Amino acid sequence: MGAESAGAGLVFEAIAAVRAERLVLAGVSGGVGHGGALVLRGANGAGKSTLLRVLAGLLRPDEGRIAWDGEPFEDLPSWSRHIAYVGHLDALKPGLTVAENLRPWAVAAGRGVEPALAVMGLEALVAVPARFLSAGQRRRAVLARLALSAAPLWLLDEPTNALDAASLARLEALLAAHREAGGAVVAATHQDFVLPGAATLELVG
């Protein structure tokens, strides 16, 4: 973990989090450098989603320190520019088409939606309202947002849910390209997928 010791990339130390009066995380430390990947493992309830939400700034830790390239997490607006977060729920507006759901991210990136649709093989669904999508298609539409993100750190909660083999291969290619460009990935998953050289952090709850 040389990148971590040098302060490059993500470092989190002694993270503790209490939810619903239950200690979910205690003394959790780890990190991932530029171009690296970290896989979170553990049984249901072990705190994988909670840790990702803490790292994304959606939950404040009760204890601990988080930093990116040596810059501590002090306020959400400055931290959020480092982060692209995909939760385990598919946050799509059912009445909007696939393209319309992606458009806010495309506008923020100063790009069109078409390249992102192509990355996850959604070109034929561009005008289809999200309510008509299958579970796998919804997941692909959410993951397509990553292709529009300039954030260096991608935080993914069960990204492979409902993906078939072809879609899983597309996701693996997207993550590989992000890492080759110097980005980092932290993913919580129960399903094996290809993240070459990824470290593993086992959470025990």
Taken together, the total number of domains comes to 1
Beta-strand percentage range: 25-35%
* Helix fraction bin: 25-40%
CATH architecture: 3-Layer(aba) Sandwich
Number of helical segments with 4 or more residues: 7
Whole-Å distance between the termini? 24 Å
CATH topology: Rossmann fold
Determine the structural class based on helices, strands and strand pairing: alpha/beta
* Order of H and E elements: HEEEHEEHEHHHEHEE
The CATH homologous superfamily corresponds to P-loop containing nucleotide triphosphate hydrolases
Largest sheet geometry: 5 strands, parallel
**Which CATH top level class fits?**
Alpha Beta
Tell the overall outline. globular
Cα radius of gyration in angstroms: 17 Å
Number of strands: 9
Secondary-structure map with pairings?
Layout lengths: L1 H4 L4 E10 L2 E11 L4 E5 L6 H9 L6 E6 L2 E2 L3 H5 L2 E4 L11 H12 L4 H6 L15 H10 L8 E5 L7 H16 L3 E5 L10 E4 L3
Parallel strand pairs: 3-8, 3-9, 6-7, 7-8
Antiparallel strand pairs: 1-2, 1-4, 4-5
Question: Briefly, what is this?
Answer:
With 205 residues, this protein is an alpha/beta fold.
Structure report:
With 205 residues, the chain is α/β, with parallel strands linked by helices. It has one domain: P-loop containing nucleotide triphosphate hydrolases (Rossmann fold, 3-Layer(aba) Sandwich), CATH 3.40.50.300. 30% of the residues lie in helices and 25% in strands. The strands form 2 sheets. The protein has a 5-stranded parallel sheet, with helices on both faces. A 4-stranded antiparallel sheet has the order 2-1-4-5, covered by helices on one side. Helix 7 (165-180) links the parallel strand 7 and strand 8 (184-188). It is globular, with a radius of gyration of 17 Å. Residues 1-6 have low confidence and may be disordered.
